[in-house]
Design brief:
Number of helices: 6
Distance between the termini: 83 Å
Low-confidence stretches: 2-13
Shape: elongated
Strand content: under 5%
Mean pLDDT: 86
Length: about 170
């Protein structure tokens, strides 16, 4: 009898742990915290914003480089026209160059307006908007100067825009 009690007790004791464990164990998956996800989102938005600012700087510097030569040519043809030494074909080409410059500056102003709106409307980029605000106004000034055939002054205004964009880019790196 002792033996049968011992056998029953040993069976019950060894079976009890098997019955008590009803959940399957699985490795816990690491959960990303909301702060890490927010930091990653902020970093991605800042990188995208900085990339857009850098693209504007590249486009504007390339344009200003080309504008120097075009402005010299426009001024030379305008002087020749005052002396009645320019042919109608040259005058027509000069007029097309002026229209192209004006259209290009207008396009820069529009893209800078959009950049400002995007920075203002994106919460992760709003801290940088303060420094960015006004670059579209600088391009609008250049657009007005170009409309008045003051292409050299328009180029200088665009240089100020590039300077402000560069300041924004420096702040975004910090």
């Amino acid at each position: 009898m002792k033996r049968s009690i011992l056998v029953v007790l040993s069976v019950v004791l060894t079976a009890t742990p098997a019955f008590t464990q009803t959940r399957n164990r699985s490795t816990a998956k690491p959960k990303t915290s909301s702060t890490a996800a927010a930091a990653q989102k902020t970093s991605q938005a800042r990188t995208a914003g900085a990339t857009r600012v850098a693209e504007q700087i590249k486009f504007l510097t390339r344009f200003i480089y080309l504008l120097g030569g075009v402005t010299s040519g426009i001024a030379a043809v305008d002087e020749a026209a005052k002396r009645n030494e320019a042919s109608p074909a040259v005058l027509q080409k000069n007029q097309q160059s002026k229209v192209t410059v004006k259209t290009s500056i207008q396009g820069f102003r529009e893209s800078l307006d959009k950049l400002e709106i995007d920075f203002r409307g994106t919460p992760e980029l709003q801290p940088y908007y303060i420094k960015l605000a006004g670059v579209a106004d600088g391009a609008a000034t250049a657009e007005q100067q170009a409309a008045a055939n003051q292409f050299d002054a328009a180029g200088r205004s665009l240089l100020n825009v590039i300077s402000r964009l560069t300041d924004v880019l420096v702040i975004m790196r910090q």
